[in-house]
Amino acid sequence: MQTPLIDLKDIRKSYGGQDTPKVDVLRGIDLSIHAGEFVAIVGASGSGKSTLMNILGCLDRPTSGEYLFAGENVAHLSSDELAWLRREAFGFVFQGYHLIPSSSAQENVEMPAIYAGTPAAARHAQAAALLQRLGLGERTGNRPHQLSGGQQQRVSIARALMNGGHIILADEPTGALDSHSGKEVMTLLDELASQGHVVILITHDREVAARAKRIIEIRDGLIISDSARDNPDAQTSANPGALQAVDLRKRLSEGAEATGAWKGELVDAVQAAWRVMWINRFRTALTLLGIVIGVASVVVMLAVGEGSKRQVMAQMGAFGSNLLYLSGASPNPRTPLGVITLDDVAALKTLPQVKRIMPVAGAEVAVRFGNVDQSAYVGGNDTNFPSIFNWPVIQGSYFTDADERNAAAVAVIGTKIRDKLLKGVSNPIGQYILIENVPFQVVGVLAEKGSSSGDQDSDNRIAVPYSAAAIRLLGGHNPEYVVIAASDARKVKEAELAIDELMRRLHNGKHDYELTNNAAMIQAEARTQNTLSLMLGSIAAISLLVGGIGVMNIMLMTVRERTREIGIRMATGARQRDILRQFLTEAVMLSVVGGLAGIALALLVGGVLILSEVAVAFSLMAVLGAFGCALVTGVVFGFMPARKAARLDPVTALTSE
Ligand code: ADP
Ligand code: MG
């Protein structure tokens, strides 16, 4: 004789123990069912029928006894292999239909195929065909609450058939239906049995049970009669067209892993997540405020911080951030001030880190034009002046190298000199002014610097050739200080080191000079700004944390509310990791939505700030970083609830309220 498809040997199941009284629900069930049989298990309420069905369908494990499925002991299968068996071999039909309330009829029917990794097109077509066959062709888009009880039960039968439904386990399928719908459902089960499906029908109603070929009666956890056992001749009536029994060896070759399933599952998980979020949109929005505010504040605060930093840098860098100033200094109070010579300047000029070098000798002196007297800073410097200080001439031109060589008495004046000293003159170019009683001819006017440099007196200045200043005004040849432009604004520090080393050599190891730079000041300023950004950033991080806790809260609530759905998914063949993936996807979706909303809010706030003329500089890094943080928050805080969902026991989940 053939190996029975299902073979139960002395199956016992008891609940309770330790602190609660022990209940023996099944007390030694022996039962074999062959391919193609239509079996009814009948018994009074509380006799253990559902418990038996859960064990038959591998949703539950017996306390003791052996369950052989196609000859293989089910006790030896892992939870993934059991999920595979539920998916491939069984189709469940429950008294309460157990459809997923947020999904349409079509989606409910497709679910087992998603876990089996059936490609989307085949899945859609098959589900539509099944619904059509069960008379629900018009209802595919309806959600369960939009269907009558009879229609819902037919949807659940379609779902049971989706992956083949070799063995249909129907637990009181007509229990909640009116007599007409009940008859329809029974006719359907009859048809399925005659097509060769194994149908195991559980009922308390003898009349319903009478439709089956074989009737097993159960009372208080024991089989008290079995029409096949009592009437052995009838047993050979196994349906000749019986469906091929599920081949367990196939499972091993498939590795219990439905290949390509993850893609369908991911799409399904994202859709399911979106639906649940949409249904609870108010609650979701409130809970997501934490993440929204967190992301928005990170982005806005960093943008404001960066904006003000750039503003300060721009102000300080108006004279060039790559500039170094070298002047004489005394190593200690008793030694005389060191002197920088033009030889030093010539030597420094050869350094590769030095782009330009310019000696300056200047003084605050009296200048006169006609009968107007004014005090101004007169600096002797060479022709590097406009490029070093990024300070163009707006009228006339700068003096030339020839002027420098000849110590020509020419002057380039700042706007304040033009406007005050030469105020009555229409064209200052060509005019002679007296500097310390020495006549100098004006050849150019410098652009106005004041507003950008932050120094109100920088335009009250006259630039003359260094040689002319040395010979005609100051009576000395050594520069007061030297301005050096580093070759690379980002390598000012390196230039500083090189200059320092060379100067030490030139001055025989004496440190009688001082080297300062704008960059150092800018860097100090930037550091303060960075500290500020860091502080603002950590405030934002705290709100992200709060947001994460919100996600965890909402996920825990979701898992509790949808425990039944988790049970249904497991009954249709979802593995633990499928459930984990689904709820993790939901958590990530939540934070992605929160993150995007946060970025949108940040841009909005930024726009308002820009309109109110606050310096704002959005950086892509900050936006991506904040979004990434939100994503990580979702994964981290969603993991615990998702794992909790995945570890639920299928039966407990199914029977939860
Ligand atoms: P039936 O489906 O035949 O009405 P069940 O199999 O649902 O019966 O239940 C049989 C008995 O097992 C009942 O007395 C019920 O109280 C008990 N029972 C079922 N599940 C549990 C459980 N999780 N814990 C304790 N007792 C249970
Ligand atoms: Mg029951």
Explain how this protein is built.
The protein is an alpha/beta fold and 657 residues long. Among the domains are: 275-313 and 524-654, no CATH class; 323-517, no CATH class. It is built from 23 helices and 20 strands. It is rod-shaped. The structure holds adenosine-5'-diphosphate (ADP) and magnesium ion. Keywords: ATP-binding, Nucleotide-binding.
Short note summarizing the structure:
This is Macrolide transport system ATP-binding/permease protein. With 657 residues, the chain is α/β, with parallel strands linked by helices.
Task: List the main descriptive attributes of the protein structure presented here.
binds magnesium ion, alpha/beta, rod-shaped, binds adenosine-5'-diphosphate, six-stranded mixed beta sheet, six-stranded mixed β-barrel, 657 residues
Strand-helix topology:
Blueprint: E1 6-15, E2 23-33, E3 38-42, H1 49-56, E4 64-69, E5 72-73, H2 79-88, E6 90-93, H3 105-116, H4 120-133, H5 149-161, E7 167-171, H6 179-194, E8 198-203, H7 206-209, E9 214-219, E10 222-226, H8 227-230, H9 248-254, H10 261-279, H11 281-316, E11 323-328, H12 342-349, E12 354-369, E13 372-381, H13 385-388, E14 393-396, H14 401-406, E15 410-413, H15 415-420, E16 432-435, E17 438-446, H16 450-453, E18 461-465, H17 466-474, E19 481-486, H18 492-506, E20 513-517, H19 518-561, H20 563-571, H21 576-611, H22 620-646, H23 650-654
Parallel strand pairs: 3-8, 3-9, 6-7, 7-8, 13-18, 15-17
Antiparallel strand pairs: 1-2, 1-4, 4-5, 9-10, 11-19, 11-20, 12-13, 12-16, 12-19, 14-17, 15-18, 16-17
Bound molecules: adenosine-5'-diphosphate and magnesium ion.
Residues 15, 23, 25, 43, 45-51 line the site of adenosine-5'-diphosphate (ADP).
